[in-house]
Amino acid sequence: MDHSTNSSVHRAEGEAVSTASPRDYFDLMKPRVMTLVVFTAFAGLIAAPTDVDPFLALISIVSLAIGAGAAGALNMAYDADIDATMKRTQKRPVPRGAVSISNAYGMGLVASILSVLMMALAANYLAAGLLAFSIFFYAVIYTMILKRSTPQNIVIGGAAGAFPPMIGWVIATGEISLDAVILFMIIFLWTPPHSWALALYKSGDYAEANVPMMPVAKGAKSTRLQILLYSIVLVVFAGAPVLTGLGGLVYAATSLGGGALFLLLAWRIYNSRAGEAGSAEDGALYAVRAGDKAARDLFAFSIGYLTVLFAALIVEHAFDAYWAVPGVNL
Amino acid sequence: MAPENGSDTTGDNANDETAPERLDSSGAPASENFGFHHREGQPSGESVSLTEEQLAARKKRNIAIAWSLIGFMVVVFLVTVTRLSQNVAS
Fold it and tell me: Which of A4, A11, A110, A125 to substitute to test the interface with B, most B CBs within 10 Å?
């Protein structure tokens, strides 16, 4: 075997020599999405009525984050053509040419397997099974099947992003309870208004990439109405943890205040002409044309809303700030 | 897809002794490679010289993979020990 430092290497025909850095591979894992995944999973873990070894909990959450990142890498590998078309995603590692599609698949698959194994070792088989299913759901059901075929893509596909708090709960308890399902449903119902608000002010991008997001397939007016309807259902349902005793006064106040603002912004979208101006020239996430500001505002606020909602659960259960809402606990 | 290096014997010139000898991808006469020839997607035998930037990037990736593997091993070890100690205690 030649151990020389000769820099000449044999290459398969047509294969480019990579200059990808570890950072490019990290970016494949959609770090911002991973942050929200970790946060909501942590909330589920903390809110669960069972103590768990802090070290095993930490490793379990890290496994979940890597699993979510792996699903993101598989998504970027499959959607390289779409990402190359859309201004918002053109700078991702695959369309930029930093990482090849096959390497993105390779990394996604390896990270998926390792994360599920780690979860099984550190937590339990149910949590590992849920993690494996959520990766499969996001990478195959959503990315490969739903995304390009139906305007309901993110409604059904939103389930993938709703698993983390449920998995967090299962890490602690080893079982799926009503409260775990409620946490799942909150994110499931949050996803459509959140994603459609973005799709409204980036509809030109989606149309160019032939992705049948709701504003592209059914028009901006229909999307604005559906955002309002889903927002009402979400805000009402977000009160469910109070009824089961999972959320106390802090959560109730947060849910009421945040929900009122959410509805206000959804109402503003409904009464606006958002989505009718096409995408902004600037591909940045929050870049928007004048008529689309209502959509951008709801998109930005929806992230804060979900964060604050789960933060309230963390505060109540981690810092002994739980006071039951009188008369409503079942 | 036709082979690239002269092993095609189905053409009109297959038995034409006056045709110039074809070369394989490395520039050597095809008759010297005993019928073995380059196929698309397989190593071609060609080599390229990596630039300093490519070498540095490869080194960084290798180091990152090495640390990841070491981290994975350490985590598996620690988790196993923690689980074992929990089971023994119970």
Answer: A11
